[in-house]
Amino acid sequence: MIRLDAQQVVAAREGNRAALEAVVRAAESPVFNLAMRMLANRADAEDATQEILVKIITNLGAIRDVEAAGGWALRVACRHLLHERKRGAIEAMRLTFQGFAADLETGLSPLADHGLNEVEEKLAIDEVRIGCTLAMLICLSRELRIAYILGDIFEVTDTEAAEILDIDPAAYRQRLRRARGAVTTFVQSRCGLVSELAACRCERRVGQALKIGRVVKGQPDLSASLGDIPSVAEIRGRIEVIERERTSAALMRSTPNSPAIWASS
């Protein structure tokens, strides 16, 4: 997930400024993407990213195997995010799957009722969907959240994840099973992308998001650097070809590597 060039790491440790800047550039984006999924808030993720980068660049001398510097940096990031103080309003909300499910049942309305053009509709739906996946992660405890992010979103092996988190592989697998079970149960019962029986649809949440200011018409929160975001139809197609127990992971991996907000009341 974090790829650091061994030669640049060595040069940075020897005081080469250009090499140090290259190491920071290589680590910054993946660290931020991890922090966003752990904290679900852009400002908090940016602060955490800066703190993690400081830890990385000030401890380069502690790396025993420079060929494995990326794995070392990922451990630094994960342990910081797992053990740092609670920060921001998102975690302070103590969001639960039960509470989030109740919230999703309110304010559903037809997308056509809100006067958006085609581009505005797609952007609003994307923001609602991305934010919803972040909210689901916040419903997990930090320990379960990091286990799920590593195992099901970033697809790190259980051995690697256990080493990153400094726990026994069996303990990591247990955490991942618990997290996967909670997320899967939720999306299969609540998410219209996964189940045709679920009432919630991203497009039906747009009106509520507009009403409470989570999405602002004509003022997209997502930057132009997001890249290609799959459409709802494309995501449904991908989910249909994946075994049932992994549909939640497919949904989570459809989220682009950047911040968003969710439509909740």
Question: If you had to describe this structure to a student in words, what would you say it looks like?
Answer:
The chain has about 260 residues and is mainly α. It is built from 13 helices and no strands. It starts with 5 loop residues before the first helix and ends in a 12-residue tail after the last helix. The C terminus is likely disordered.
Mean pLDDT: 83
Termini gap: 34 Å
Give the DSSP E fraction (strand runs of 2 or more residues): under 5%
Structural class: mainly alpha
Q: Which stretches of 5+ consecutive residues score pLDDT under 50?
A: 222-227, 259-265
- Count, helices: 13
Helix amount, in percent?
A: 55-70%
Can you tell me the overall shape? globular
What is the string of SSEs from the N terminus onward? HHHHHHHHHHHHH
Radius of gyration: 19 Å
Largest sheet: none
Number of strands: 0
